[in-house]
Inverse folding.
């Protein structure tokens, strides 16, 4: 097993977790922040916007997540730079990338607009963009969440299905699969009927009332 494949906590993963905690603290502390100077006042709505985008994604509403994340990205790019804004921008891109995957690439990722009629070439371009965002995150953090997200992206490309299965099977055996989408991706790439059936059962348990839409496995688009 190469170091690149290992699923383990890293110092960068710990920093990411700290950043997530700080982001939550910023969101929860918004009323206090609004009493500060104007720079902070402008940042608070952005923080809430990013939080709403992530929440929409967690509630299996990728179209809404894409719209909100895209709005956040545009606003963050137009403002002053800083460590917190970089954190929010990175988080927004991750949300938009995942929403793009879960809509099978039918997203104009520059505008955050869902386009169900998008042609195959444009979908592939959107999926490659999303995979690039998730691969960047995985390159600095091989923890379970980043690994599952990266593998979910890989699963959309036939040439990467074996790689996706390797990563997801390892998470499954370690019992650290983060959500229903990770199980759906495993079901999509597995050629073992027993593993596939088990992954679909786990997906349905995790997805709950949304299982009918979340846990439908189709063949990934041509990559």
């Amino acid at each position: 097993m190469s170091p690149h494949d290992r699923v383990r906590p890293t110092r960068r993963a710990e920093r990411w977790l700290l950043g997530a905690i700080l982001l939550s603290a910023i969101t929860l502390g918004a009323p206090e922040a609004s009493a500060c100077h104007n720079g902070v006042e402008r940042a608070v709505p952005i923080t809430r916007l990013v939080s709403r985008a992530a929440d929409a994604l967690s509630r299996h509403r990728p179209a809404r997540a894409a719209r909100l994340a895209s709005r956040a990205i545009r606003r963050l790019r137009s403002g002053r730079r800083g460590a917190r804004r970089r954190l929010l921008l990175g988080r927004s891109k991750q949300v938009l990338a995942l929403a793009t995957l879960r809509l099978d690439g039918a997203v104009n990722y520059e505008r955050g607009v869902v386009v169900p009629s998008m042609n195959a070439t444009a979908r592939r371009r959107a999926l490659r963009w999303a995979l690039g965002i998730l691969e960047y995150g995985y390159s600095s953090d091989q923890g379970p969440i980043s690994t599952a997200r990266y593998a979910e992206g890989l699963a959309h490309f036939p040439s990467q299905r074996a790689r996706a299965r390797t990563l997801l099977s390892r998470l499954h055996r370690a019992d650290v699969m983060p959500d229903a989408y990770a199980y759906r991706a495993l079901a999509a790439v597995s050629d073992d009927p027993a593993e596939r059936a088990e992954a679909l059962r786990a997906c349905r348990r995790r997805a709950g009332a949304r299982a009918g839409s979340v846990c439908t496995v189709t063949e990934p688009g041509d990559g």
